[in-house]
Amino acid sequence: MPASLAREIARLTLEHVVLVLIALLFAILIGIPTGITLTRKQSFRSAVLGITNVVQTIPSLALFGFLIPLPFIGGIGERTAIIALVLYALLPILRNTLTGILGVDPAVVESAVAMGMTDRQRLVQVELPLAAPTILAGVRVATVTTIGTATIAAAIGGGGLGVFIFRGLASVDSSQILAGALPAALLALAADGGLGWIERRFARP
Protein backbone atom coordinates (compact mmCIF):
# COMPACT_ATOMS: atom_id res chain seq x y z
CA MET A 1 0.00 0.00 0.00
CA PRO A 2 1.43 3.40 -0.98
CA ALA A 3 2.25 5.66 1.96
CA SER A 4 0.01 8.41 0.59
CA LEU A 5 -2.99 6.05 0.47
CA ALA A 6 -2.29 4.83 4.00
CA ARG A 7 -2.18 8.43 5.26
CA GLU A 8 -5.46 9.23 3.49
CA ILE A 9 -7.13 6.13 4.95
CA ALA A 10 -5.97 7.15 8.43
CA ARG A 11 -7.19 10.73 7.94
CA LEU A 12 -10.60 9.72 6.62
CA THR A 13 -11.00 7.04 9.30
CA LEU A 14 -10.38 9.69 11.95
CA GLU A 15 -12.92 11.98 10.25
CA HIS A 16 -15.40 9.09 10.24
CA VAL A 17 -14.88 8.32 13.93
CA VAL A 18 -15.27 11.98 14.93
CA LEU A 19 -18.47 12.26 12.86
CA VAL A 20 -19.93 9.15 14.51
CA LEU A 21 -18.90 10.17 18.03
CA ILE A 22 -20.42 13.65 17.73
CA ALA A 23 -23.67 12.25 16.34
CA LEU A 24 -23.88 9.59 19.06
CA LEU A 25 -23.15 12.11 21.80
CA PHE A 26 -26.08 14.28 20.70
CA ALA A 27 -28.32 11.23 20.19
CA ILE A 28 -27.56 10.02 23.73
CA LEU A 29 -28.05 13.48 25.24
CA ILE A 30 -31.44 13.72 23.51
CA GLY A 31 -32.57 10.08 23.54
CA ILE A 32 -32.00 9.04 27.15
CA PRO A 33 -33.64 12.09 28.81
CA THR A 34 -36.54 11.86 26.33
CA GLY A 35 -36.94 8.15 27.08
CA ILE A 36 -36.97 8.88 30.81
CA THR A 37 -39.57 11.62 30.30
CA LEU A 38 -41.80 9.26 28.31
CA THR A 39 -41.85 6.79 31.20
CA ARG A 40 -43.47 9.56 33.27
CA LYS A 41 -45.57 11.18 30.50
CA GLN A 42 -47.51 8.35 28.89
CA SER A 43 -49.71 10.73 26.88
CA PHE A 44 -46.72 11.78 24.71
CA ARG A 45 -45.34 8.27 24.26
CA SER A 46 -47.15 7.22 21.08
CA ALA A 47 -46.56 10.53 19.30
CA VAL A 48 -42.81 10.70 20.03
CA LEU A 49 -42.19 7.05 19.19
CA GLY A 50 -44.28 7.43 16.04
CA ILE A 51 -42.20 10.37 14.82
CA THR A 52 -38.89 8.60 15.48
CA ASN A 53 -40.21 5.47 13.75
CA VAL A 54 -41.17 7.50 10.68
CA VAL A 55 -37.69 9.06 10.52
CA GLN A 56 -36.17 5.59 10.68
CA THR A 57 -38.15 4.49 7.62
CA ILE A 58 -36.81 7.30 5.40
CA PRO A 59 -33.96 6.05 3.20
CA SER A 60 -30.71 7.51 4.48
CA LEU A 61 -29.65 9.18 1.24
CA ALA A 62 -33.12 10.72 0.90
CA LEU A 63 -32.96 12.12 4.45
CA PHE A 64 -29.60 13.73 3.71
CA GLY A 65 -31.18 15.26 0.61
CA PHE A 66 -34.25 16.52 2.50
CA LEU A 67 -32.08 18.31 5.05
CA ILE A 68 -29.89 20.19 2.56
CA PRO A 69 -32.41 22.93 1.59
CA LEU A 70 -33.64 23.56 5.14
CA PRO A 71 -32.63 26.96 6.57
CA PHE A 72 -30.23 27.10 9.54
CA ILE A 73 -29.75 23.31 9.81
CA GLY A 74 -29.27 22.41 6.15
CA GLY A 75 -26.55 22.95 3.60
CA ILE A 76 -23.57 20.98 2.41
CA GLY A 77 -21.06 19.69 4.96
CA GLU A 78 -20.60 18.04 8.32
CA ARG A 79 -23.40 19.86 10.16
CA THR A 80 -26.16 18.43 7.97
CA ALA A 81 -24.54 14.99 8.08
CA ILE A 82 -24.43 15.05 11.88
CA ILE A 83 -28.09 16.10 12.14
CA ALA A 84 -29.13 13.23 9.87
CA LEU A 85 -27.03 10.73 11.84
CA VAL A 86 -28.51 11.96 15.14
CA LEU A 87 -32.03 11.44 13.78
CA TYR A 88 -31.18 7.87 12.76
CA ALA A 89 -29.47 7.04 16.07
CA LEU A 90 -32.33 8.35 18.23
CA LEU A 91 -34.83 5.50 17.87
CA PRO A 92 -32.83 2.58 19.36
CA ILE A 93 -31.55 4.73 22.24
CA LEU A 94 -34.97 6.24 22.98
CA ARG A 95 -36.85 2.96 22.65
CA ASN A 96 -34.39 0.96 24.77
CA THR A 97 -34.35 3.61 27.49
CA LEU A 98 -38.14 3.47 27.64
CA THR A 99 -38.22 -0.34 27.51
CA GLY A 100 -35.47 -0.71 30.11
CA ILE A 101 -37.07 1.56 32.71
CA LEU A 102 -40.59 0.24 32.14
CA GLY A 103 -39.21 -3.30 32.38
CA VAL A 104 -37.92 -2.86 35.94
CA ASP A 105 -39.69 -5.27 38.29
CA PRO A 106 -42.72 -3.44 39.76
CA ALA A 107 -42.03 -5.09 43.14
CA VAL A 108 -38.61 -3.42 43.22
CA VAL A 109 -40.17 -0.04 42.39
CA GLU A 110 -42.82 -0.51 45.07
CA SER A 111 -40.12 -1.35 47.61
CA ALA A 112 -38.28 1.86 46.73
CA VAL A 113 -41.49 3.86 47.17
CA ALA A 114 -42.16 2.14 50.50
CA MET A 115 -38.67 3.16 51.65
CA GLY A 116 -39.65 6.80 51.08
CA MET A 117 -37.56 7.44 47.98
CA THR A 118 -38.53 10.42 45.85
CA ASP A 119 -39.16 9.95 42.12
CA ARG A 120 -35.67 11.29 41.35
CA GLN A 121 -34.00 9.00 43.90
CA ARG A 122 -35.92 6.00 42.59
CA LEU A 123 -34.87 6.82 39.03
CA VAL A 124 -31.18 7.36 39.80
CA GLN A 125 -30.66 4.66 42.43
CA VAL A 126 -33.02 1.91 41.26
CA GLU A 127 -34.47 2.22 37.77
CA LEU A 128 -31.49 3.48 35.74
CA PRO A 129 -28.98 0.97 37.21
CA LEU A 130 -31.37 -1.92 36.49
CA ALA A 131 -32.19 -0.59 33.02
CA ALA A 132 -28.53 0.10 32.14
CA PRO A 133 -27.94 -3.15 30.15
CA THR A 134 -31.00 -2.48 27.98
CA ILE A 135 -30.03 1.18 27.45
CA LEU A 136 -26.49 0.14 26.51
CA ALA A 137 -27.91 -2.37 24.03
CA GLY A 138 -29.70 0.54 22.35
CA VAL A 139 -26.50 2.59 22.27
CA ARG A 140 -24.70 -0.41 20.80
CA VAL A 141 -27.23 -0.79 17.98
CA ALA A 142 -27.17 2.96 17.33
CA THR A 143 -23.37 2.98 17.19
CA VAL A 144 -23.07 0.14 14.68
CA THR A 145 -25.79 1.53 12.40
CA THR A 146 -24.36 5.06 12.61
CA ILE A 147 -20.91 3.85 11.56
CA GLY A 148 -22.46 2.32 8.44
CA THR A 149 -24.79 5.22 7.67
CA ALA A 150 -21.99 7.76 8.12
CA THR A 151 -20.38 6.50 4.90
CA ILE A 152 -23.19 8.30 3.02
CA ALA A 153 -22.15 11.61 4.61
CA ALA A 154 -19.53 11.96 1.89
CA ALA A 155 -22.34 12.48 -0.63
CA ILE A 156 -23.06 15.90 0.93
CA GLY A 157 -19.49 16.86 1.77
CA GLY A 158 -19.48 15.38 5.28
CA GLY A 159 -16.19 13.53 4.79
CA GLY A 160 -15.33 10.18 6.33
CA LEU A 161 -14.69 6.81 4.73
CA GLY A 162 -17.56 7.28 2.29
CA VAL A 163 -15.20 9.51 0.27
CA PHE A 164 -13.39 6.37 -0.88
CA ILE A 165 -16.64 4.53 -1.61
CA PHE A 166 -18.16 7.30 -3.75
CA ARG A 167 -14.84 7.88 -5.47
CA GLY A 168 -14.62 4.17 -6.25
CA LEU A 169 -18.19 4.07 -7.55
CA ALA A 170 -17.54 7.06 -9.81
CA SER A 171 -14.38 5.53 -11.27
CA VAL A 172 -15.55 1.88 -11.09
CA ASP A 173 -12.51 1.14 -8.92
CA SER A 174 -13.10 -1.73 -6.49
CA SER A 175 -9.88 -1.04 -4.58
CA GLN A 176 -11.14 2.46 -3.69
CA ILE A 177 -14.48 1.02 -2.57
CA LEU A 178 -12.69 -1.54 -0.39
CA ALA A 179 -10.45 1.21 1.06
CA GLY A 180 -13.61 2.82 2.45
CA ALA A 181 -15.80 -0.21 3.15
CA LEU A 182 -13.21 -2.36 4.94
CA PRO A 183 -12.18 0.17 7.62
CA ALA A 184 -15.86 1.05 8.18
CA ALA A 185 -16.71 -2.62 8.68
CA LEU A 186 -13.77 -3.07 11.08
CA LEU A 187 -14.88 0.01 13.05
CA ALA A 188 -18.42 -1.40 13.31
CA LEU A 189 -17.13 -4.80 14.49
CA ALA A 190 -14.80 -3.20 17.04
CA ALA A 191 -17.58 -0.97 18.38
CA ASP A 192 -20.03 -3.87 18.56
CA GLY A 193 -17.52 -6.05 20.41
CA GLY A 194 -16.43 -3.33 22.82
CA LEU A 195 -19.94 -2.16 23.69
CA GLY A 196 -21.11 -5.76 23.93
CA TRP A 197 -18.42 -6.41 26.54
CA ILE A 198 -19.49 -3.32 28.53
CA GLU A 199 -23.13 -4.38 28.24
CA ARG A 200 -22.33 -7.83 29.67
CA ARG A 201 -20.42 -6.25 32.54
CA PHE A 202 -23.47 -4.17 33.46
CA ALA A 203 -25.73 -7.20 33.15
CA ARG A 204 -23.81 -9.15 35.80
CA PRO A 205 -25.68 -9.47 39.11
Task: Summarize the helices and strands and which ones pair or pack.
Elements (H helix, E strand, L loop, with lengths): L2 H38 L1 H16 L2 H8 L10 H25 L3 H9 L4 H31 L12 H10 L2 H30 L2
Helix pairs in contact: 1-4, 1-6, 1-8, 2-4, 3-4, 4-6, 5-6, 6-8, 7-8
Account of the 3D structure:
- By secondary structure, the chain is mainly α.
- 81% of the residues lie in helices and 0% in strands.
- It contains eight helices and no strands.
- The relative contact order is 0.14.
- The mean pLDDT is 89.
Compose a concise summary of this entry.
The protein is mainly alpha-helical and 205 residues long.
Secondary-structure element order, as H and E?
HHHHHHHH
Give the tally of β-strands.
Answer: 0
Q: Number of DSSP helices?
A: 8
What percent of residues adopt helix (DSSP H or I)? Answer: over 70%
The low-confidence parts are none
Strand content: under 5%
Radius of gyration: 20 Å
Structural class category = mainly alpha
Distance between the termini: 48 Å
The overall average pLDDT, rounded, is: 89
